[in-house]
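note to self: the first set is below, dont mix up w the second
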Amino acid sequence: MTEQINPDGPQAETLSPTKRALAALAKLQARLNALESANTEPIAIIGIGCRYPTHANSPKAYWEMLHNGTDAISEVPPQRWDIDAYYDPDPQALTKLYTRSGGFLLDPIDGFDPQFFEISPRETLTLDPQQRLLLETSWEALEHANIPPETLFNTRSGVFLGISTTDYREQIAAAAKPETIAYLGTGNSLSTAAGRLSYFLGLTGPNLAVDTACSSSLVALHLACQSLRQQECHLALVGGVNLMLTPATTLVFCRAGMLSPDGRCKTFDAAADGYGRGEGCGVVVLKRLSDAQRDGDHILALIRSSAVNQDGRSGGLTVPNGPSQEAVIRQALEKGKVDPALVDYIEAHGTGTSLGDPIEVSALGAVYGESHSREHPLLLGSVKTNMGHLEAAAGVAGLIKVVLALQHEEIPKHLHFQKPSPHIDWEELPLEVVKEARSWPRGDRPRLAGISSFGFSGTNAHVIVEEVPQTDPHPPREVDRPLHLLPLSAKKPEALADLTHSYITYLSALPEEFGDVCFTAQTRRTHFVHRLGVIAADPAEAIQKLEAHQRKEEITGLVGGKRQGYEYSQVAFLFTGQGSQYVGMGKELYETQPTFKQALDRCAQILDAYLEQPLLEVLFGDQGWRLHQTAYTQPALFALEYSLAQLWISWGIQPQILMGHSVGEYVAACIAGVFILEDGLKLIAHRARLMQSLSSDGGMVSALTDPETIQSAIAAYPDQVSIAAYNGPESVVFSGERQAVEAVAADLEARGIKVKPLEVSQAFHSPQMDPILKDFASIARQIQFSAPKIPVISNVTGQLAGSEVASAEYWVQHGASACEVCPGHSVSSGTGERRSIV
């Protein structure tokens, strides 16, 4: 084994000059290797948001469009401009458009909720819809990544946006009202399209708006990957947006002869006659691979490498340069150390022009000609044939297509390819256009694809994308929760209704486990003020209840409302006391929830030293009849309540304050850290044993009336009955000798007062407990107590417990006097002794 020498260590002075030099060289090499590894680390894509033509408003809908080979080109919607007023089929008509079609978003682009994004109505009047679309799509991308947006506040997260179109500014500038002119700049500047997103989310990482024309969003992706690898940011939102709001830009491109008359990109086809314009928005969420793995993110695909260059002095400003395209592809392959033979597919720039397509294919052939063959060709396709050229947003649209293709193990059909272009030497090039959808299954090597995007200003970008390495599937769950909570929320009631409808549709064809969906809704979504929660065992039950709620029916297991105020309410845990036990309690949790089972098993193991029968036999087995004997009741309740608290805490429900009802205060104190679990169980087991040893001729009754009425009723039995607890202004428990207690209860019931005998074997919190106090005190003094780390409401005082709770004397008094009562009360015992009940 080679000795590792630290040139900076204490032994360095004793080393020879040669060894010191070798050690320093080795240290330098290690640093260089680490730096190279960081600079080439793959970037994980963990979330996608998109809005594309033909209602492709989600990754799922976008894939359906691609898988079905949908042609999303349509005539110009009347909401954009009157196409009849602008159209003339004559390409020479100087003030007219010779195309009537393009790839348009069919959903309204003005259906924006400015209040959701904290934008005033006045500011909205001059806000470019591209900014609106970007805000919505970015939020959806973060939700797709299972990242609550508020968790990114004040983090070094970056925004990298491809954007170039300024239709809205040109349309509304002249018509702006004086009171809205102040917002023209922020509402229409390309820089604030990116900046507004960082402002709204509170991101402090790099923020760039990139305009390299058609390659903008892929260049933005390249810059984001560099920023992540250099640790300028830890998460990046990368996107591209493009909307066609006026005929102005289309008219410019018509005059330049760039557009196809039918509005379609017939890429690589002999009929290629220009490109069709398209619009939409796509956003991806990126992290370094190591960070995504550490955070347990769902990784969709990996960006292996990327490269950017320029055409330089080509045949014209807008004329593509084949050697530059070839160079940028080679650079991306070299940076990622990717063997060209491993690349299966290229999502081409492929706009459908008779000049640009042959140049691009020739460059691909030069790079991949030797690594591929007619038997193993490089596959080509372009999403522009589905929905047109999205210009600044085109690159990220192609990227998302490739990610979805990797996930679905299918390369979608390339449309409008009837007759191969005669300007491309297909016979000599090992390339093949995907005329029909092609299976792309996982194999014994990683699947890789390249994506190209070339700006008409000459800036070229190429990205290499790789599948996520296959990992062992999660083991099937042996048990699951029998019921799940699905929480839904929104900022407005109308939005909550829309979300409810969306979940009904989603649950109707649920691809995931229902429990996983509920978990994500609980922990990976922002919870707004208008809320709806439904408890269900499966999707069918959830749908049934949500639909009933839509019909405004009263439904068990469904609750809705509005959170008041802006601060989250504190969570309190209340642990119940004796009388709440029943045979089999907790059995379903024990059988289905590992955390609960582990905690209960631990309690049972500790209690083996104190109980004659095993706790689990008392709870779930043939010894269930013992559960109503005090010696078993109290330890069983402690163990069950402690285990339930551990389960809730494991779900992220953290108590800010604790309270217990008699026996329950022992559990509250344990959770608060007043004593450790072993000592808590020791205390409660001895307490229960001592109480069990007392006479069983005792009883307790709860009455729904005021303390004065009870004091009057028990006055006839001064030595037999006393007040045990003040549970509330109209809820009092009295305790004592059974016959006297029953007589008082009968008297109260005759007066119309509701009473309920408690299922107990002794008269707790009464003078009947006095004989055991000395022995219990000796046990309590063996325990090490600490001040509570979580606030606890005292049974003895009714106030927040202070240092007194960390003493044996407190727990002796707790057993003797009444508990869980209203402040300010005291009661006389049957012996004339004053007992503090408070």
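second set (the one i keep forgetting abt)
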Amino acid sequence: LFRSQLPVATLGLVLLALGIASIVERAPGPDFGGVLNDAEALISKQEPATALAILNGPIVDAIGKSAAADAETLARFHALRGESLFLAHRERRVERAAMNTPEGIANNTNTLAELEKAEYYDKSQLTPRRLAFIAETLIDLNRIEEAVEHLKHIPAAESDRRRRLYKRIITQDLAGTPAQRARALEGLKLLREDLDLPQSDRVWAITRQQRAAIERGEATRVIDEVLPELQRLDDPNSSEAADLHLLLGDAYLETGEMEQARNHLTLAEAILSPGDERRGEIDESLARIAQYKGEIEEARDRFASVVERFPGGESHAEALLGLGETEADLGHPDESLAAYAALVDGLHQNGRAGSITPERAESSMEQRHRIRSAAGDLDTALAYAELIVHAYRGDSAPASALLRLAETHRDIASTLVGGITTDDEYESAGRLSLLDPAIVEAARIHLAKAGVAYEKHVRASIVASPEEASVSLWNAADSFDRAGEQQEAVRLFTEYAHNRQQSPKQLESKYRLGRCFQALNEYTTAISLFEEVVRANPGSDEAFRSYVPLAQCYLLASNDADSEKAEALLLQVLDGRLFKPDAPQFKRALLELGQLYLRVGRFPESIARLTEALDRYPDTPEETRLRFDLADANRLSAAQIDRQLKEAMPVSERAELERLRNDRLKAALDLYEQVRARLDGSDPTKLTALQRIILRNSILYRGDCAFDLGDYELAIRHYDAAAQRLANEPASLVPMVQIVNCYAALGRLPEARTAHERAKARLKEIHETTWQGAAVPMDRRHWERWLESSLRLDQLEAKASTANAAQ
């Protein structure tokens, strides 16, 4: 029950009452009347908390144990306790919202229980005043039907109290559900039928009844009915007159009769004091008129004034909506979004903000979204789309809002990457590799968010619009796939394949699943899907598109052991029967075959295919990688020829091989230099990890090619440039070692010894796990040459020492 600190002034009365209760306990025949009279007197003096302290004291046990407490006494006791609870709680309450707190609910429940006990013992204790308390408590507990039943029993003598509570129920219901609003309108109708209704209450009922009619689109009828009401008023400058002028202003505004609307609003404005909250409604309506007439700055200023001056008023939400619209019209998107965001916060918390529903807010913001989208300002359009979804509580956003959000995210992603969304996945990937990684990552994030929104749209539209849901299911899977979130893409492409058996995209869904599993390194599953696509419809585009990734998966699943099976597939693509050279599949197969031959050591064939690819596709985004691979193929082919030259063969054949070896080393040297120049000319912050490795190796392999050609001076220059370039990287060890080998080959022993000591010092600085890995691209030949050079240096120094000693 209610607890309160007792005021000092009433402490004596409490002690007196406690003393009375003590006497009652000791008396042979207790008389509770005195204690109850004291409590009733305190309530009359508007000291309900003190009365409650008495009624919660010793009398509770005494009245429960005494046989002398008859029904009338018990009824009076519970009635006074209920009344004290009701009044004491309202003394403490600051605002009606406190009724929804745990304390408020507990006190209302206890109040109702006490008054119901009083009714049980003696119905006569439920005076009209207490009936009103019960009704108001039931309203606080949102038990409206029961409250209405109690109000019906309040006699005419308490009509003011009854009307006040009816008005409270109606106000509460007007802001509620459609069913509650219908109940409110019925209550307004009954209220207006009361012939004794005071003028103020009659106007109150008229304004709310007619505002509902305006919302229903019956503004013309409202004008016809309200104009005569002005003539009924006793005082044309009364508060009630201001209400009717304001109502007429809004009705004329709805019919588009702006001058009449402005006249009535101005009349209302003249009646009301500057601080009256209805001035906010007037300013908001006048702002709407200015907005309609194209006076956007004036409208914006009026809306902003209402927002600032009447933050808790009924016009606040309307003004926020208008402010969002006018700021957008004036080209101030940030200010517009800020206003809408404030409105949406109210909608998200309460389901509606004043007279603004999420649907009305969506309609307003959707127009701004459309305008910004058409203007190419997709970031602002996205902000509107996100606010629209947030305006709905929980997951109640309609399908249209979710689809708008998904499409905007996808449009932004497409714009960021320059519209790279072609069906040629390889071409798209190649072009993406040329973009700033930060831009590609931003696009990826937008695609992932698009996938989430598309999937929500599927769930929201599957019943009402299954075809639209089907399109969004595909777009969700596609967006996740393009975002690199293949697990999500697999889940949705699988759902599409299972649930859309008759869809034209059925075969493509399996192809896309194969590509997803390939990206997830699940090559066996990918192979089975690609093979299924080829078997299902060998002549389909999806089957043709499956050849290259199927060949890739054969190689990846077997670590190149299935190279013959992959080669057969790629040659089938390249034989000219399935694809022309301008087909993306032909291009990819050619590149893939060249790289396959490079990996398995078939260097002459790799050179032929990679050269053909560069000739056919000089502007491919992968040109730099192709040149590097071609350089590698030439360098490694030269090394392969080197091993052949160690075998016995005719002189003419040896001469031809030596010429071919030198040609390939020169070609490799030239290609490495081309790659270095291209990548060095790029922004280093935008290079991918692969491009950085290619640049490093190109710099190093220039020296290797010159070394193998026997041009040690050129090799030293290249190695020295590489050592300086890679000074802070473990890879710097490679050129330092090769410089030793160059000086040793030239017989320049002092320089060789100095370079050797520097290389040994650098080696000690590098942890063994580092130089064993890819961070230091030292192959066996580098180590062997260094060992040979160091041994040779030791031998030469030993000879020199012996010679010096002999002298």
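remember for set 2: Confidence is low (pLDDT under 50) at residues 1-18, 20-27.
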